[in-house]
Amino acid sequence: MTDTSNPSLAEAGMPFREKSAWVAVAGMVVGYGGYFAMVATLPHQMIDGDPPGMVLKLFALLTIATIVRLVILGAGTLAIRAASPADAKAPADERDRAIAGRSAAIAYYVMMTGMIIVGMFMPFTAHGWAITNAALFAIVVAELARYGTIIAAYRRGWHG
Amino acid sequence: MGFREKMLWASAATTVVIWGWYFWGFVSALEAPAFNVGAELGKFLFAVVALVVVQVVAAIVLALSSPADAQAPADDRDREFALVAYRAAFITLSVLIAALTVAAPMTIATAPAWLAGRPPVLVPIVISNALLVSLVIAELVRSATVLFLYRKGS
User: Fold this and answer.
1) Alpha-carbon gap, residue B21 to B48, rounded angstroms
2) Nearest CA in chain B to A126
3) Phi and psi at residue A127, to the nearest 5°
4) Rounded to whole angstroms, how far apart are CA atoms A95 and B117?
5) Is B127 near chain A, with CB under 8 Å?
6) N or C, fewer C-beta in 10 Å, chain A?
7) What residue ranges do the domains of chain A occupy?
8) What Cα–Cα distance (Å) separates residue B83 from each residue in A37, A80, A106, A115, B121?
């Protein structure tokens, strides 16, 4: 009988799509978490009014954050593919498709809500770069909601 | 044609007409020598109210014309089509917003050149309208995907 109480054995049985979602979460948290942490530490007077030099610096920082995310995503995906090649090649079944659809629906509403807040209210209270950052933050939150739903679905045995 | 499909057609048509009218006017206002923020805000609010009113009226008319169909719960096929459409819409919205996070800094950086003496408040207004276009396109992709699947499946 398999001992599923052993965490390492339980982890060995983790579906490939759940592992992919964990890798994506790691990429988002490290890449954009780092970016937002750095932006949050900047004094307001440095970014208020969108001085051209600061806009370019923030853009460079955002590019670095995106590269970090993609490197983590690429390396992580290669690693989990190498660890379970058969699982990686298996086509998505009905449950996988249902989970993917349900998680995208949740993420879509999260992003819509974020965009409505950013697009309808922020123009009257914030400057240009703050709006860009808020839009990016909405993407990150929506993607985390999507991957979080995928992980929860596989962990809890939901059908999606 | 079922109630849900008719509703989607009505929703897509009103979205194209009302938001098309708003964005056409917004671009025209941007090209004009002076930009009236109050007038554009008024047009935006009118578009939102008109969209809600027209869609509510369309839903009532369609529900009265086929009451049994309107009250029927969504079946597995409806739910599956909806989930596929959400995925397409989410990918579309993500790509558009990601592109905007690249385009917006350039818009901000080049603002002094294209503002040409107009108020600086135009910069966030342009960015927020670009976000709004993204939402409208994503919603149209969602409607179009479901309509395509209904047509393909019927």
Assistant:
1) 12
2) B124
3) -95, 175
4) 57
5) yes
6) N
7) 11-156
8) 34, 27, 10, 21, 39
Q: Which two tokens stand for residue A125?
A: 């209270």
Residue A4 Cα, gap to closest chain B Cα (Å): 33
Q: Could you read off the pLDDT of A51-91 as tens digits, one per residue? A: 667 777 888 888 999 999 999 999 999 999 998 888 888 88
Distance (Å, rounded) from C-alpha A70 to C-alpha A27? Answer: 7
Asked whether the beta carbons of residue B104 and residue A58 sit closer than 8 angstroms, the reply is no
The tokens describing B137, both together, are: 């396109």
Lowest mean pLDDT among A24-33, A120-129, A144-153: A120-129
Task: Write down the pLDDT at residue A12.
Answer: 52
pLDDT bucket at A5, cuts 50 / 70 / 90: very low
The distance from CA A72 to its chain's CA centroid, rounded to whole angstroms, is 12
What single letter denotes the amino acid at residue B47? A
Say yes or no for a CB contact (<8 Å) between B94 and A50: no
CA distance A153 to A100: 10
**Hey, are the CB atoms on A112 and B93 less than 8 Å from each other?**
yes
If you average pLDDT over residues B85-107, what whole number do you get?
A: 86
Tokens linked to B6: 């008719």
Evaluate whether B29 touches B35 at the Cβ level (below 8 Å): yes
Give the dihedral sign, CA B108/B113/B114/B117. Answer: positive
State phi, psi for A4 to the nearest 5 degrees.
Answer: -80, -5
DSSP letters of A42-99?
Answer: S-HHHHTT--HHHHHHHHHHHHHHHHHHHHHHHHHHHHHHHH-HHHHHSPP-HHHHHH
Q: What angle do CA B48, B54, B55 make, to 5 degrees?
A: 90
Question: What is the complex's ipTM, to 2 decimals?
Answer: 0.70
Distance, in Å, from the CA atom of A81 to the CA atom of B120, rounded to the nearest integer, reads 50
Q: Supply A138's token pair.
A: 């909405």
